[in-house]
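The instructor's notes for this session suggest beginning with a concrete chain rather than abstract definitions. Hand out the sequence below and ask the class to guess, before any prediction is shown, which regions might be ordered.
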Amino acid sequence: MMGKSFIHHPSSYRDPSGFIFMTEGTLYRQVNKVFAPDFDHFIQSGCYTKLVEKGLLLPHEQLNENLTGSNNWYTTLRPKRIPFLSFPYEWSFDMLKDAALLTLQLVRESVAAGLILKDATPYNIQWFQGRMIFIDTLSFAKYTETEPWVAYRQFCEQFLGPLLLMHYKKQHLHPMLLAWPEGIPLEIIRSLLPLRTKFSMHVYLHIHLHARVSAKNNAGSKTPARFSKQKLLNIITSLGILVKKLKLSPRKTNWSAYYDEASTRDNYLEPKKRMIGEWLDSIPGIETAADLGANDGEFARLLAKKNIDTIAADFDPYCINNLYNSIKKNDEKNIQPVIVDLANPSPSIGVNNEERESLTGRLHADLVIALALIHHLSIARNIPFEKTAQMLQKVCKNYLIIEFVPATDEKVQLMLAGKKDIMALYTEEGFRTAFEKYFRITRCQPIALSGRVLYLMKKNEQ
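After discussion, reveal the predicted structure:
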């Protein structure tokens, strides 16, 4: 049959088993004929149903319709749609850790059903309704007991290695995942880990020995390794023990106690919350929001309580990690934490710069809130008001709530101490002039006696 007009997803081209495509605004996944036996076993074994019921795998609807017109077509899947895609280099330590543990759990579950996970990449995992969930249905292939786990090295380079480096270096190193999107090479991981890790049985096995054996195999050794099912399960158990032990050392940053300090300021935090709550009640049609500079999620939660699906973004990885763990503990469903530096947001990467879309290409929220943020961008990062306004109009569909902090503010005075040359540029008049090119100011109100001013703006029609 002739297929409908469709758009092949730019990141879905590596796997001959199938691909993701879009047609008439709906996302689909095609299963190719070559993968038919594996897919049928995955469904008929009950593995798919079990994983979906446990909340480990994104559900899909199966359609007996060849929407692409491809001769390779076997069946079509319509997966449940993920509202906002995030990538590992935007995740905190515990988000990556939980994604690693999810991957290991899926290996165990699939092996019990006569299947194996042929991919072990965090790009197959997304945040959905308050948890990490696996999204690639075509990663489950028939298991051959005598063969080793083909994704073992991928797991070590994309999950285990980054977690180990952050654990031992006591630093949040998520930007390394942007530098090496295919995984940090074993040799580099091994060289960066402290010498004492050679005396940890699990680290030695999965990193140091693994790197040495891989280098030998790359040099030409072709001796095949035979794997029993028990040997595979032992490796998965060992990886699980190691990953569960890894922790990111807690650290106080300039922003980790921001709202604790803000709450001590008279007539500031509570009046601001009341004002924003009233404005939210007056704005129609708000289903999605982005809290930029979310810190520990104080205002993201205000949005979420009004049943607004909210992206909580902050450049401080420790704040986002704390927020993530709090969301897990409280079983909150509609706040998605991400690490974002608005002065250097995630770019488009991959083949033709199309595989992973930039942050500003992915983030489009009905409402954007930017509270106590503009002075950090303008003064600490030397970003002109207009540049910030341009960025916010890209990610904002309709409304913007933004706080202006005047030059007389105590916090701004501290920041300006070493930057006298930009004081004349940092004015409320200059702020309004820059933003009115892209937004129409609908409300403007001082926050009690703080000297700070809250603005509600409506995006200009394009």
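Then share the key points. The longest strand covers residues 396-404. The chain has 17 helices and 16 strands.
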